[in-house]
Amino acid sequence: MNRDLRNIAIENSDDIIHEWLKEINLLKNVNYTMDISDKLYESNNKEFVNVIFSSIRENGSTMVVEEFSKKIIHLGWPLSYITDGLLVFRKVTLNTILNKLEEVDPAFIASVLSNVDSWVEPIIRHLVNEYSVSWEHIVSLQRIALQELSAPLIPVMDNITIMPLIGTIDTERAKFIMENLLEGVMRHNAEVVLIDITGVPVVDTMVAHHLFQATEAVRLLGAKCILVGIRPEIAQTIVNLGINFSQLPTKSTLKKGFMLALEITNKSIVEMDNKSQYFNEILGISKED
Amino acid sequence: MMNSQSCVTILKEWDIVAARQMGREIAKNIGFGTVDQARITTAISELARNIYLYAGEGKISFNIVQSLDTKGISIKAEDKGPGIKDLSQVMEDGFSTSGGLGAGLPGVRRLMDDFDIISEVNKGTTIVTVKWLR
């Protein structure tokens, strides 16, 4: 019986394909596929319906489906294109088969239904899986990319190190910041660490709490933390929240923090008056030349 | 009095970010300045984090509210978590059960204009807070 139905479907494949293409073209505008050129849309539709038929012919083999799914994912077409396409195919095929049959036995109709479903289901399953695997892959790549941006530590001078923080700080990232900070302080033998929060959009009690913990840990290692890059609106929010930052030296800008860091490490920036003479000396050019 | 509602379900830590981004966008559209935007976003962050930490699941919804002479943003944080036993205690500065700073709820009250909290042990907590445009 299964084979019978399959033969009916294959024999009438031209009708089914014709109907399917008609219906799927109606769906073009509802499925976020509007921007796709008509030519590409049509050629992919033809390929799609042929893939479905070859899968049916080969007893639900997913070989052809695999290739097709790779192509569609690569093109970035929405998943709804696939699911709708298969649902329409199911509808059209059922209609065609039931029209070809004279007998209207309910049990037989049920078996037709379950048969057609068994053709469509493995394709749907496979394609949806392929899609979700591709999404998960992208998400995990982005997570790694984010982690790499997480908490860089830049040694700018002997004993002075800067940690610029950009973006939201969550629990996981706070842990990274702490680890990198402490490891960096030891590695670069830092005396002063500047934590720059210019790029942190929200400083709430959790972020403040993590910053306190990190600076306290740095203090235990014998180094000093200076919090810089506090924007005026963040300063007001911190005051409203009632967080006490008084144990932590803060500066509005990285520049001011850096000057303070130089002071702490007994350094200063000296401007040279006679630049050309200085450079000449460095380069070893005497005036007589 | 109320219109245009939107809400964010809080389940994962990143939902906190989604909630405050939505809140900031709404506050910006109402016409709040950067300082008030920062206050509102921080308040949302505290409320959403409380849901995430203590209830595990809940939602934050936003409303644009209108009074006679001005409008504002109303933020409602709802959860069906363990509830709060002693409300006056959590509204005190420095009280925390999680080892945090304990500035969350009293901080939110100071950041916003109106603040209402209803909590029943084992039933959940609902906080409604409003910031008016001046």
UniProtKB/TrEMBL annotation, chain A:
Please indicate if the UniProt record lists Protease as a keyword.
Answer: no
User: Domain STAS: where?
Assistant: 150-261
| InterPro entries linked | Bact_StressResp_Reg, Globin/Proto, RsbRA_N, STAS_dom, STAS_dom_sf
Q: Which UniProt keywords apply?
A: Phosphoprotein
Q: Does the UniProt entry include the keyword ATP-binding?
A: no
Database matches in PROSITE patterns: STAS
GO terms, molecular function: heme binding; oxygen binding
Recorded protein name is: Modulator protein RsbR
Q: What is the lineage of its organism?
A: Bacteria, Bacillati, Bacillota, Bacilli, Bacillales
Designated gene of the protein: RsbR
Automatic annotation (TrEMBL), chain B:
The protein's matches in Gene3D superfamilies, at most eight in alphabetical order, are given as: Histidine kinase-like ATPase, C-terminal domain
One Pfam family it belongs to? HATPase_c
Domain Histidine kinase/HSP90-like ATPase per the UniProt entry, residue ranges: 35-134
Q: Which SUPFAM superfamilies match?
A: ATPase domain of HSP90 chaperone/DNA topoisomerase II/histidine kinase (SSF55874)
Q: Which GO terms describe its molecular function?
A: kinase activity
SMART domains on file = HATPase_c
What are the alphabetically sorted keywords of the record?
Kinase, Transferase
Superkingdom, according to UniProt?
Bacteria
Protein name in the entry: Serine/threonine-protein kinase RsbT
Q: Record the organism.
A: Ornithinibacillus bavariensis
List the gene name: rsbT
